[in-house]
Design brief:
mainly beta, 8 strands, 6% helix
Length: 94
């Protein structure tokens, strides 16, 4: 589990309010894990954006298949959220 916070910087100005993140992964087998990444961003007041899904992990690649959701997506699209696919490639030596 990871928690983070920080301020955005746009047009040479620091944002008035911070962004918060809470993320985590739970390995369920040697190659698969459950993942979640959640953001609380200062849009007007604060708005939450969250994701949840499954990660496949190999030696040089990882693939996430997940859903991204927030209050607007849940009311406009459907309850599960917007589909999301992510590929991570490790170019380092091993």
């Amino acid at each position: 589990i990871t928690f983070g916070t920080g301020y955005g910087y746009v047009d040479k100005e620091l944002a008035d309010k911070p962004v918060f993140t809470l993320s985590g992964m739970k390995r369920i087998t040697r190659r698969f894990g459950l993942v979640s990444e959640n953001w609380v961003v200062p849009v007007d007041d604060y708005e939450a954006v969250y994701s949840y899904g499954v990660r496949y992990m190999a030696q040089k690649i990882a693939v996430d298949v997940a859903f991204v959701n927030n209050q607007e997506i849940a009311s406009d699209i459907f309850v599960l959220g917007m589909p999301y696919v992510d590929f991570i490639i490790n170019f380092g030596k091993k």
